[in-house]
Amino acid sequence: MTYSRLNRHFTICIAVALLATTALPLAALGSRETPDDAQFRIAVFVPGVVEGSPTYEMLVAGVRRAAEERPGTEVRVIEGGFNQAQWPQSMTALAASGEHDLIVTSNPSMPEIADEVSQSFPNQRFLVLDGYLSGNPSVATVLFNQREQAFLSGYFAGLVSSSSMPNARPGARAGLLAGQEYPIMNRVIRPAFQLGLQSVEPSGQVDFRVLGNWFDAAAATELANSMIDTGADVILTIAGGGNQGVIAAARTKGAYVLWYDSSGYDEAAGIVIGSTLVRLDRAAHQRVLQAIDGTLEFGRGEVLGVADGFVDFDTEHRLFQRDVPEAVRNRLAAMIQRLRTSDLVLEMPTQF
Ligand code: RBF
Fold first, then answer.
1. Which residues partner with 129 through β-bridges?
2. Which residue numbers in the chain have pLDDT < 70?
3. Residue 47 Cα to ligand 1 middle (Å)
4. Apex CA 226: angle with CA 175 and CA 204, to 5°?
5. Contact indicator for 180, 211 with CB cutoff of 8 Å
6. Which of 10, 15, 40, 141 has the largest count of CB atoms under 10 Å?
7. Which pLDDT score is estimated for 247?
8. CA 285, CA 69: separation in Å to the nearest integer?
9. What is the per-residue pLDDT for 23?
10. Residue ranges per domain, the chain?
């Protein structure tokens, strides 16, 4: 057991002990939306806040869509906030309440928390998106191939840098802003982004910066300004609410932004010029329907990528077609096609 696992284990044990002696005010965690006669009750635990976080917005939308298609399903959305030390206690409280047939959550750190909580509450079922765990009979997970996703972002950044677009600058220096460092960021997203960039410009370099949280747009502007000042013409931002700060810097200084996970062109026309997609909403919708119908396979970790139709690049948007030269669009389309047909295989690791 690693130190952090041990620490988390104690936290969960203490949370379970507290729950045994005191009735935790669950009402404080969220409010009910439908009457008590629901046949299937779902808690969506958002590890952060929904607004401004592409994956969480898709998570809630996908679960709600599934619930609408199965009358009698209750959905309760609980925002866990930005204090990550509190997530294990909040998840424990949800499981301890015994009120939910399914707890749905999303981000790469959540499988471990679901795994630990399930040791104390083995009857509680969990669905974790954007994370991986295999072998726990209480937990189903869906991971997206972020190696393909970040590779496409880097490839596109290289194409833009070497294009005739107005803000393109020679040198192929691309920025990557992360909300925080975590294993998938450091070992998958960052190197795959660089690999994609260098597939176009062999000497291309990634300027990697860490915001330290998922909300501080002002600090994100400072970091993005510094990246642009030192030569970055394209910045991939994966920083939740911080993404808006990157847009502000790019607008002032004349640079481009790449969005990650959901289509971002409408956030800032002419500035957000590329958007990779994960179909997290579709995965949430499909897997939640299966859970309600009793057909979801727990104990399994799925990995879905470009060839499955769950990772993509939004090449359909009118702003993409308006702002990105045809030659760039064609080269990107050819690379997406190579991934779709498995002519190029970039396997997503599941162990870190
Ligand atoms: N992404 C967000 O957009 N907003 C968040 O608040 C957020 N919090 C995260 C917390 C942790 C501990 C980790 C590991 C990732 C977080 N992410 C967040 C990243 C997100 O879940 C996803 O991995 C990235 O958007 C890349 O797909």
1. 106, 142
2. 1-36
3. 8
4. 30
5. yes
6. 141
7. 99
8. 10
9. 40
10. 3-129, 146-278+308-340
Taking only the tens place, the pLDDT of each residue in 33-62 is: 445 679 999 999 999 999 999 999 999 999
Tell me which amino acid residue 17 is.
Answer: A
Burial (CB count <10 Å: 0-12, 13-18, 19+), residue 276: buried
**pLDDT in the model for residue 170:** 82
Ligand 1 atom closest to residue 182's alpha carbon, by position in its atom list: 14
Q: Name the residue of 142, 185, 214, 237 whose CB sits within 8 Å of the most ligand 1 atoms, as the mutation to test its pocket.
A: 214
In the reported structure, the alpha carbon of residue 240 is separated from the centroid of ligand 1 by a whole-number distance in angstroms of 7
Judge whether 3-129 and 146-278+308-340 match in fold.
Answer: yes
Alpha-carbon distance of 184 to 25, in angstroms, equals: 35
pLDDT of residue 33: 47
CB 116, CB 12: distance < 8 Å: yes
Confidence at residue 13, expressed as pLDDT on a 0 to 100 scale: 56
- Sequence-distant (≥ 6) Cβ neighbours of residue 177 within 8 angstroms: 209, 210, 211, 220, 223, 224, 227, 235, 236, 237, 238, 239, 242, 246
Atom of ligand 1 nearest to the CA of 54: 3
Pick the CATH number of 3-129 from 1.10.3720.10, 3.40.50.2300, 1.10.760.10, 3.40.50.1820: 3.40.50.2300
Write out the two tokens for 329.
């669009």
CB within 6 Å of ligand 1 — which residues? Answer: 47-48, 53-55, 84, 107-109, 130, 146, 179, 182, 214, 238, 240, 260-261
| DSSP 8-state code for residue 347 | P
Give domain 146-278+308-340's CATH number out of 2.10.50.10, 2.60.120.430, 3.40.50.2300, 3.30.300.20.
Answer: 3.40.50.2300
From residue 193, alpha-carbon distances to 147, 189, 293, 351 in Å are 8, 6, 39, 19
Residue nearest (by alpha carbon) to ligand 1 atom 9: 107
Q: What is the pLDDT of residue 46?
A: 98
Q: What is the pTM of this model?
A: 0.93
Give the tokens for residue 121: 């509450």
pLDDT tens per residue across span 5-26: 555 565 665 555 555 544 444 4
